[in-house]
Amino acid sequence: MFYKPTEGHGLPHNPFNAIVTPRPIGWISTRSSDGVDNLAPYSFFNAVAYEPPQVMFASTSAKPDQDNTKDTVANIRDTGVFACNVVSYALRDAMNASSAALPAGADEFAHAGLVKAECDTIACSYVPAAPAVLECKLTQIVQLPGESNVAVFGEVTGVRIQDQYLVDGQFDVSLFQPLSRLGYRDYSAVRELFSLARPDDNNA
C-alpha cells in the first residue's frame, strides 16, 4: 500500500508507529521548580552526538494542567536539567506505571514504587535500579510542526553505570536486556547480539 499521511491510511491503527522500530526508551526524570520529582518514558529518544555526548527526546502531546506540553518539558524549561534512565526488562512494569497521566505535582517514582536517589551533577532524581543513567543539562528545545510537538536536546554532564554490567571494559547490554518500543502496544528486550566489522575497520 501507499498513503499520504495528510490523507490518512485507512487502517485500524497508525502504521507509522510500527515502521521506525525498535526505538530506545528514554525514561526521563525531572524536578519541578517547586521541588516535585517527575518520571516519564519517551520512545522518541536517542543519542545524537559523541563529543560532547548529547541526547534528545521528543514530546508529542500535552496535559490539560500544563501550558500545551507535559510535566517533563515544563520542568526542563524551568530548571534546565534532566536525567535519562535506561530501562531494563526487569523495570518494564515500573516504566509502564510511570506513563500514567497523573496530575501535575504527582511523584511518578512513588506511583511506580521506585526508590530514587539524587544525581551528582544536576539537581534531579534518578532511578538507582536503572542499569545506566545520563545526567543532562538542557541545550535547546525545538518547536516541531504539529500541535504540542517539541524536541528537547541535552548535553550529558554525568554518566552512571552499574558495575555489574561492565564486562572486560565494555557495557554489556545482554546482562540486563534493554527494553525498546515497537509499534502499537508492543515492546522488545535485547537478548541476542552479533557483531559486524566495518569494511575500513583496521581492528577487525
Please describe what this structure looks like:
With 204 residues, this protein is mainly β. It has a single domain, classed as Electron Transport, Fmn-binding Protein, Chain A (Pnp Oxidase, Chain A), CATH 2.30.110.10. Helix content is 11%, strand content 33%. The chain contains four helices and 14 strands. The chain has helices at 16-19, 71-79, 92-97, 108-111; strands at 23-24, 26-31, 37-42, 45-49, 54-59, 81-85, 117-118, 125-126, 132-143, 150-161, 166-167, 170-171, 179-181, 187-189. Strands 3-2-6-9-10-5-4 form a seven-stranded antiparallel beta sheet, covered by helices on one side. Strands 1-13-14 form a three-stranded antiparallel beta sheet, with no helix packed on it. The chain has a two-stranded antiparallel ribbon with strand order 7-8. A hairpin with a 4-residue loop joins β4 and β5 (54-59). The protein is globular, with a radius of gyration of 18 Å.
